[in-house]
Design brief:
This protein is 68% helix and 3% strand. It is mostly helical. The strands form two sheets. The protein has a two-stranded antiparallel sheet with strand order 1-2. A two-stranded antiparallel sheet has the order 3-4. A hairpin with a 6-residue loop joins strand 3 and strand 4. The termini are far apart. The C terminus is likely disordered.
Length: 356
Amino acid sequence: MDFFFPLLMAIAITAVLSPLIRRLSIRIGVVDQPDQRKIHQEAMPLMGGLAIFCGFWVPVLFTQALTKELLAFGIGSLLILISGIWDDSKDIRPWIKILFQLAAALVVVLYGNIRISFLTSLFDARPMDLGWFAFPLTVTWIIGLTNAVNLVDGLDGLAAGVSGIAAITIGIIAYMEGFQTAGVLALVLGASAMTFLLFNFHPAKVFMGDTGALFLGYSLAVLSIMGLTKMATTVSLFMPILVLGVPIFDTLLAIVRRLINKTPIFAPDKDHLHHRLLAMGLSHRQAVLTVYGVCVFLGLSAVGISLLPTGQAMMAMFLVTLVVLYGADKAGVIGRKVGENRAKQDSAAVAADRRR
């Protein structure tokens, strides 16, 4: 039970700091103004992610040995936090955030030696050393997931809940596989994110902003490398993708959708999973809880698959992927024409947001 005390600290610190940071954000004018792409109808205080950051790092620094790996993770997290606060307060250009993310990724890869160093063969379960390819693969994974979590931060409580469920899943599997440090870190992150929901679930009192979404994405990326990719099993290649399936699949499907519709890949839209659920007539809370359900399904699937022999694990992974793609297609996330039923979707989304 070496994780019990840090979990309690994470819950207490996040619960105490969240309302304080809310008041600070309002006082200094760091608020999110509504526009046509956003669901909320009034200005909302940002920087709630600072409570998640402190709720994670304070108990970690008090209870865990400061290894080179952990120090690199901390420095990288601080860089991400700075870029998030800067963006929440000044709305900086995307390329500046990418530079911060690149620096944060390089710190953990080069200084902390946290990297995806091998993949397990699908045929004979032998580990295959990635050599020099480990560097670009790890950096791409960290930057990609950091932004993927930020993209799902579109409804009250969505990013916090999705990240919390993913972190808890990583913690459980890491413990099962003997990676106790990664397990403790992931569970503490999950506790902090889930506690933040007390103030962020619909109707939210405070938003996490880029301060929180980027930090959660970065932390999940690093912890998934520390706790999942080192598994000496064939499914270790797919396990992080399965656990973090919602932000990863939502981002990939957004890219596919924009390619099909011949629109710029980085152009914003209202066709992410949570937007489509609102357009189907679900209320704000129902849409968020539905995504939670998908995350729990993927998390439980990952835990179960990690216990199966190689052949059965691969078959289970294939079936889960089919279920996810079928659900995404039914929700209209894949291949929907731009502008199709747009007026109907927008009016349904507004009506859903107003329902309690």
